[in-house]
Every structure is written in C-alpha cells, then in structure tokens.
Amino acid sequence: MAYGARKSERVDFERGIPVYMMGIDGTWRRDCLMIDVSQTGARLLIEGSLEGLDLKEFFLLLSSTGLAYRRCKLVRVDGNEIGVEFLARGKSAKTAKQRPRDRAE
Stretch 64-79: mean pLDDT, rounded? Predict the structure, then answer.
C-alpha cells in the first residue's frame, strides 16, 4: 500500500494522547504519544529506545489501568515514530496470516 493510502479515515491529535505499549507477556512497557488513529491502526511517538523489544505483536494500552487496549503489530519505523496495525480481536499476528485449512473428514 502506498504511503498516504488509507483503509479508513485518521483522526489527528494536535499534542498527542498519552498511551502505553506493553509486551504480550508483560515483561516490558513504554510510554508513548498517539499522534493519530484510525479504525485499522495508529501512529505513535515513542519515549525511550525500541532496542530489544519484540514488536511483532504487543498491546497498546489506551488507559493507565489497561482496561482499554488494542492488540497491535509493527508496520513501520521512522526514527522514534512507529506505525502500528490493529489486529482483529482473537487473532494473533501468526494466525492472522494463516489460511484456514480445509477439513475433509
């Protein structure tokens, strides 16, 4: 998909909204600002280093209590800014790409 081509409309936040990234296993967490968001993904400004973090799949916590969140995967990195895609509920990055198998029994 060409940069700028969007599946859904984005909402830009002038100052960014404070959110948190957290590893699926809960072993790491990073503060970040959500710069913009759409139905399918978001753009985040990261505070601190991304080095050593598993960004194939992680949670984006939209509240400090963690009650509002989205499961994400990394789609692009530009310095300390990243683009993420929201994963469908109940699907991980691995299963989202796999095709269902025909079951001839």
Answer: 91
